Amino acid sequence: MVVAVEKLITSGISKPARYLGNELLAIHKAWDTTAIHWVLTYPEVYEVGASNLGHIILYNILNAQPRQLCDRAYLPGQDLAAKLRETNTPLFAVESKRSLTEFDILGFSLSYELGATNILEMLDLAGIPLTWRERQGNRGEFSDTQSPYPLIFAGGQTATSNPEPYADFFDFFALGDGEELLPEIGLVLEEGKQAGLSREHLLLDLAQIPGVYVPQFYDMAEDGSVHPHRPDVPKRILRRVATPIPAYSIGLVPYVETVHDRLTIEIRRGCTRGCRFCQPGMLTRPARDVEPDRVVEAIEQGMRATGYNEFSLLSLSCSDYLSLPAVGMEIKNRLKNENISLTLPSQRVDRFDENIANILGGTRQGGLTFAPEAGTQRMRDIVNKGLTNEELLRGVKTAWEQGWDKIKLYFMIGLPGETDADVVGIAETVSWLQQECRGKGRKPLNFNLTISNFTPKPHTPFQWHSVSTAEFKRKQNLLRQEFRRIKAVKVNFTDVRISAMEDFVGRGDRNLSKVVRRAWELGAGMDSWYENLDRAFSAWEIAIAQADLDWKYRQVENGEWNLFHVQEQKRSGDAENTQFLTPNSSLLTPNSLIPTSHSFDAPLPWDHIDTGINKKWLEEDLQRALEAAIVPDCSFEGCSHCGVCGTDFGHNVVIESPAIPKFAGEFVPNTTKAQRLRVWFGKQGNMALISHLDLIRLFDRVVRRAGLPIAFTGGFHPMPRISLATALALGATSSGEIADFELTVPVEVDTFFRKLACEMPTDIPIYNVEQIDLKASAATQLLESAEYLITVAALQETTPIQWQNWIDIIKAKEELWYEQTTKSGKSQLINLRDRLFELELVETHNCIAESMSSVIRYLGSYRQDGLLLRPEQILFMLEAVANVEFQLLHIHRNRLILGV
């Protein structure tokens, strides 16, 4: 059943285009001809989820499978969520508009420790019970009639590292890379559905797939460890590893602006740098380079297919992709004349050189981000950053010499062994870098700093270490004092409450499922968004207390175990006064908070997840950290013997760089104006819910995809010379919009019409294209009047004769005064009748109850100097003469009329 959401997705909610499901490159497959129906559900708002690369890749891969259909769903905004609950309408998939309960399987991305509350919100909005026990009930065969709810699973970094705090909510977890795993799951589901397997047997079949963890087949012991309670499932579940396929990254070009509004291509998966705090680096080994030719091909094809003006190369450490300068330069040369810019995520400052600067620089120079992590050499050695002061200065100075005046730096406080001198060293390092980067005619180098709090993560050498909340606050205050003396530096600190909560949940066991659920019931959600932090934190605290786990949370707040304090006490021989907590807090009770000894062999809640890294190696690497010993990057030096490389996980794949092409020069905007074309177009159907700014961005991408020779403005930020005559209200339709295009070379009018119409959405029809004089005024300057058809409802019983009388009265009047507020806040009286040229009752028809609606055509002033007659002002005139309350149901702009 298709959910009737058209009444909910209106201009009355924030950014309604989020929910249309009609993006360019969206894949619409026939429901009845596919056997298994997926929904990939991203538990964040659309702007975050639709630009997530993993979401796009898996969506494309699943839809490439025969007999498999994949739709999408996102966390709705609060306004739509309220409407769904008020109308008892279940959450829907954006493309098919079907309720989520109609699908066979729902997959959630769980990439953040506190993200599960958003997942529970989505399940509740969909009318799906929150836990696998509630969903199971008295279920029989896996069929439409006996299975009212789909299978619910989660994947992503957090799901792979420690799924236990969320085990109650999911039927299974998909661990590791999903490119090969999800199609295998789909085949098993199809076979099970055809065979009519029971839910238990279906999940048992899924549990045989490497990378699938079915928590209901496992129990938690008193010590927090997890073991199977039946012999036919594996004791440890392997993390899956796949090779990146760049071609699947091309897809989903949203109409609304997203957080990563660009084409993103993965160039390297995995990182072997070995930073001891970094969970992604440990969970994605081995490192796998993508062949440079495939990267270049994917970028070139992707930019042509999407029309983006920016692309990003993605990796945990882009600088470790040896082909980065060659690939970047090749693409930059090929797309030199198209005003394309390249962005990179945080990269290794020690590898930043002129070659990388050349591919990032230019007219639209992107931002630059480095992550030194620590302010002193000793601390960088402890975390195995592999970065010296000399390398840090060389990278930053290269960026400054290549034209960057502002650089973003990431630092971390609370790392094992950190002293106040190391904390102050962050400020000293920033000051030193500023002093070294000075020159005549240049502004001081600006830094934007993000200083986060160390949070221990499972499967890392530092998983056995934590820091108290009070210590974090003290160190933040210490840094605030230091930075007061340094100019041109903006410092952002992570809230210590978020860090403590991430630690508490991220290293928890199954007992935390009840905490997560209760926190959601109390209002936690969108916990990573700053404006919701106070409400969310209060909900979490209450939920923890109600679960009788506040004693355990206090351990986190107080710092369970400070490694270096333990080491110092051992050296002093003061065994009796050694008071620290074991790394396995699940062994503790409120009455035994201070054990007398600890063991690295104590089980951890995530020990049954086989990431490939040997737990003994993590312990040994922790000992190396205590000694500030460096472990080289095994992608480029000798093996570190972490345990990953082998049959199950593969080996590092490092591809030597091809020769770097000769730099063809920066983009020079072509400002030649050889032809000017005026286009008349419409805005119909769902595209009425696209904002004016989104429409401007759409035209830019359409022109790029069509390969039309658009002219650019000059200056620092060249823009395509596309000018829309005026904006149209959100939700209004039109058949009379106008846009001017300036081209660098003449194009036949018919050719331009055909190419433009071919790339436009069907709900933005092109009606006419005319060539105009290059020196003619822009359409926006020539606007004189506009003709509208407005649908108006009376909120009481009326007759067609009354409507006609009201129209006649308005036409007969010479004055109808209206008070409006100017931009400066002053009140001003205007005569609306002077701005009304024509008024006509087109038709009337019964609406709801006893009310009647009418379609009224009017022609009114529409000048850019402010002499406008808006549709809402026609309602004011009607109410003034009729003494009846009216409601504006719809606005349609028939045409814009230009002066000579």
Describe this structure in words.
There is one protein chain. The protein has 900 residues and is an alpha/beta fold. The strands form eight sheets. Strands 20, 21, 22, 23, 24, 27, 28 and 29 form an eight-stranded mixed beta sheet that branches. Strands 2-1-3-4-5-6 form a six-stranded mixed beta sheet. Helix 15 (420-436) links the parallel strand 16 and strand 17. The two termini are 53 Å apart.
Distance between the termini: 53 Å
Regarding quaternary structure, what we see is single chain
Range of helix content: 25-40%
Largest sheet: 8 strands, mixed
Q: Helices and strands: which structural class? A: alpha/beta
Q: Which residue ranges are poorly predicted, with pLDDT under 50 across at least 5 consecutive positions? A: 138-145, 566-597
> Number of helical segments?
27
Radius of gyration, CA atoms, in whole angstroms:
31 Å
What's the count of strands?
29
Overall average pLDDT: 90
- Shape descriptor: globular
Percent range for β-strand residues: 15-25%
Features:
900 residues; 29 strands; 31% helix
Helices and strands in order:
Blueprint: E1 36-42, H1 46-49, H2 53-63, E2 68-74, H3 78-86, E3 105-109, H4 116-125, H5 132-136, E4 151-155, H6 157-161, E5 172-174, H7 181-195, H8 199-207, E6 212-213, E7 218-220, E8 226-228, E9 237-238, E10 263-266, E11 268-269, H9 279-283, E12 288-289, H10 292-306, E13 310-314, H11 324-334, E14 341-343, H12 354-360, E15 369-373, H13 377-382, H14 389-401, E16 406-413, H15 420-436, E17 446-453, H16 469-483, E18 489-493, H17 496-506, H18 513-521, H19 533-546, H20 550-558, H21 563-572, E19 609-610, H22 615-626, E20 675-683, H23 692-706, E21 722-724, E22 733-743, H24 749-759, E23 766-772, H25 779-782, E24 783-797, H26 800-812, E25 817-821, E26 827-831, E27 836-846, E28 851-861, H27 871-882, E29 886-898
Parallel strand pairs: 1-2, 1-3, 3-4, 4-5, 9-19, 10-13, 13-14, 15-16, 16-17, 17-18, 22-29
Antiparallel strand pairs: 5-6, 7-8, 11-12, 20-22, 20-23, 21-22, 24-28, 24-29, 25-26, 27-28
